[in-house]
Amino acid sequence: MALDGITIANMVYELKEALLGGRIDKIHQPLADEIVFSVRGGVGKNFKVLASANSNHPRMHLTQYGKDNPMTPPLFCMVLRKHIAGGKIVDIYQPDFERILVMDIESANELGDITKKHFILEIMGKHSNLILTDENYKILDSIKRISHDTSSVREVLPGKQYQSPPSQGKMNPLLATEEAFSAVLQQQGGKKLQQAIYQNYTGISPFMAAAVCFEADLDAACACECLDPISAHALFTAFQGIMQKVKDGAFCPTVFYDQKTNRIMEFGVISLRQSALYQCKYYSTVSELLESYYREKDNTLHIRQKSHDIRRMIQSNIERCVKKKEIQIKTRKEIQDKDLWKKYGELITANIYAVEANTTLLRVTDYYSEAMEEIEIPMDPMKTPSENAQYYFAKYNKAKRTLTALSVQEKQNEEELQYLESVLNALDAAKDDADLSEIKNELADAGFIRRPQIKKGAQKPKKAKPMHFISDDGYHIFVGKSNLQNDNLTLRFAESTDLWLHTKEIPGSHVIIRTNGSGEVSDTALQQAALLAAYYSKARQGSMVPVDYTLRKNVKKPSGAKPGMVIYLTNQTIYVTPEEDSVLSIRSADEAN
Question: Rounded distance, CA 87 to CA 23, Å?
């Protein structure tokens, strides 16, 4: 969901109101494409600003959250500290309503002279960038350096002259006149009204273009050539009305949800008649909206990137276990006739003196069968009858030894496969770096990876905690995010009378419902806990997922079992379909705190 020019206009409005006259204090670069800096506000307050050039979620807004910073600041961070630390923010603006935000900063150079720097955020999808230039727009550095090999159109390198992104020939909607607006529509022919608006004016998203049509009581899919003068005037009036709200700073940050599925459809910052078609959630500031919307998405992307190597290693080991299992199944089929080989050896021995020389097929009575029918035994004519018997006995004994070893190997392989799938599920449930650190330590204990080395002086990773929810009727529900958490949650944290839940024979999280000693829970709490157990399992996308539940006292951990592996008795089973909307509606105690 891209940020349009109207949302950026709201960002500029809010940042100017809070930061103009303020001085930049601390500057950090927690991620490769993200800058966080503190501002001692000109209105007597301190603010924290996040500027991100993330390919998926580029933006700049006030933030309330801190992030862990690397021990050694990246180069771009050092350049910013050199040039704008202590600098005064003198202007923030949006050139030509483009998806660009510029912050002008006055700071002292090496000689003590006050100079102006331009800190520029370009929002262009995967080409988004953060760029610092001097007062003459000479590039000092950028968070993403773009060489001629990457782009033949526009280089972004230290020492180069900054150039704005190539224009697409669009017009500034804030300067639109009715005459020019009507002329544009007349030139579009059979193009839809919605397309004509967002393809000819900067900063207008398809959603906002549709909203303009809705404000004018026109169909967004109507062809421009079918527009009469009255309708064209109504469309411009609606367009101008929205732009006037932007000029007046009359913003209304809103997230729009589908009324049936409760899924996020869009967000915007202007009050619209179209809002009646959606379920809306309003925010007091655009920073709050963007922080709420992007924080989880950014964190999910960050965790996915940091866990990539571990995930690949686990999947590789799972594939190895699956191949080993196929070989074991094939081997078991190959030795399934071992008892017949033993019978062949004994029948050859019993009839050894009646065997003709050089025979290839021996017909004898099967004394082991009640019917005493004849049986045919393949023989090697190059061997004596005694050697043929010994061949079958040797084949039987080898198969017997293989079967004994195979049974142990199958059990070990199945346990390893279940364990690896449970770790893969834990990676899907990981919420932060602490969860990843715990999973890495667990894999190191199991011998799959080397134990992560903590650099001298580095901060110790935070201890990961289980997820904490509260049912609609007040029961506390806890969900483990890794095998170590599952063990701790079930074997140490939970009381014997608490209710324990887990998906039936499916890798997933352990779930505990606090019963406060009663051993009983409501149907609502049981249903919601089962939904969480199914959602945080390998069966997340399934339907009618079986979830076992029993009192915690019935759950035991076998000696020598891998983390997260338990056995239980006297359980009951509930079947649930873990629809995302139902799960997300369960109140999180972690967010409440």
Answer: 5
